Amino acid sequence: MVQGTTLQAQTGLEQSAAALPGSSACRELSAQSLQELTLMAAVEHVMCKSPLLNQALLLVDEQQAGVDLARSALRPRFSASAEFATNRIPSSNSGAGSLSSSVTGSLGVTWVLYDAGARDASVEQSRQLLNSARSAQQTAAINAVNEALRLYVEAATAWARLEALRETESVARQSLQAAQAKYDAQVASLSEKLQAQTALAQATLDRVRAEGVWETARGQLAVAMGFAVNTELSLAPISAAFPAISARGPLADWIEEAKRTHPRVRGARADVLALRSRLDAVRAEGKANVQLSLGAGSTRDLGTPGGRFEHSLSGYVIASIPLFNQAEQQAREAQVQAQVSSREAGVTLVERDIESELWRNANLLDTETQNLKAAKMLLYAATQSYQITFGRYKAGVGSILELISTQVALSTARSQLAQAQLSHAQARLRLEVSSGQVVLSK
């Protein structure tokens, strides 16, 4: 178990994970970069082109506007109005008609003096919803990193298998050449030659299938990066494709830190705090509130020669006290309180899920580390066995079946080593990404 060697990606992964749609970190890849594509470049482009991440960023902007709107309720509201009125009275039997006109202007201000804390609770609720949206944005970024890692590793696995099968095809062709030479020298049977040809045909078939798998994986990665599905790209070698990893503290301490700072946990806690503020607002709405209103106006009758403006002032204080609504108030409070309790239980579930995920990824890393060591030993043994068997066969003391058997074992060992290298690199990064600390805030 990797108890004291948990991992942390260096700044390369963090910088790539900080690339957000529309940010200056998003840049176009050069043709050279597409021919030696690293995980960092893939992560950066997947995040820059992620529709889900873009939606999460827009939600943050929406919630920021909600905070500004809630704060505006704390300030007085001013209003101004102007009115021009005209009235024509038609002629009648008693006299001629008349036309009267007037102009009126007024200014007013309204201010809630006391509301039992309803507005402050609304502001706090909006702030917590903003915090929740920011945490959701970071969670979306983590999901984008995981998606980029998955697609890149699938493509890298397909590419590594294709390379191994190409080498296997080359070895099979070499074996066929040896069998052909022995057959031409009449020291090997036609059966041996046909068996070598069959092995080469099988190797070619496996290589063609692997090319199809690679093309599919390459296309999926290209689309996720925002390119056309038929974009030509190739991957960097495994040693250069993945970022360096440095040691970190004990796993137990890391788990506790993740349970405090992971975006999913912070988002769940922000939802709880938002609902608690909503509960405060509901309680305040059931209490008295006091509102002040002031106004000043001026009116002039345009139909009166030499008429002057007539000024007026008004002011009043309105106190509103809810009566006979206790049953409704209690029901509203009980509803929000139930939502708070539900969200609090959700926080515990998220903390347990994160702890389980980190523990699972730590065990996976330990397993992949052991698998990598075993795969290296297997390739060394298979290589030695094939070289010896090939030499024996050329010397005429070995059989074609023995040669084909070691040839298949060597091919399998190559594929398993490539897969072990990729799985080990993926496990290291998944352990780091699952902590939620590789994604920077907006």
Structure in a nutshell:
The chain is of the alpha+beta class and 442 residues long.
Give your account of this protein's structure.
Helix content is 65%, strand content 14%. It has 442 residues and is α+β, with helices and mostly antiparallel strands. The chain has a single domain, classed as Outer membrane efflux proteins (OEP) (Up-down Bundle). The strands form 2 sheets. It has a 4-stranded antiparallel beta sheet with strand order 2-3-5-6, with no helix packed on it. α8 runs parallel beside α9 and α10 runs antiparallel to α11. It is elongated.
Helix and strand arrangement:
Blueprint: E1 7-9, H1 11-17, H2 31-35, H3 39-48, H4 51-72, E2 77-89, E3 98-114, H5 118-184, H6 190-224, H7 238-241, E4 245-247, H8 251-261, H9 263-285, E5 289-301, E6 310-320, H10 326-394, H11 400-433
Antiparallel strand pairs: 1-4, 2-3, 3-5, 5-6
Helix pairs in contact: 1-3, 3-5, 4-5, 5-6, 5-9, 5-11, 8-9, 8-10, 9-10, 10-11
Distance between the termini: 35 Å
Dominant shape = elongated
**Rg, Å, rounded:** 37 Å
In DSSP terms, counting alpha (H) and pi (I) runs of 4 or more, how many helices? 11
> Which fold name corresponds to the CATH topology?
Outer membrane efflux proteins (OEP)
Helix-residue proportion: 55-70%
Count every beta strand, where a strand is a DSSP E run of 2 or more residues: 6
- Name of the CATH class: Mainly Alpha
Structural class category: alpha+beta
Number of structurally distinct domains: 1
User: Proportion of β residues?
Assistant: 5-15%
How would you spell out the order of helices and strands?
EHHHHEEHHHEHHEEHH
- Indicate the CATH architecture: Up-down Bundle
Main beta sheet strand tally, sense and closure:
4 strands, antiparallel
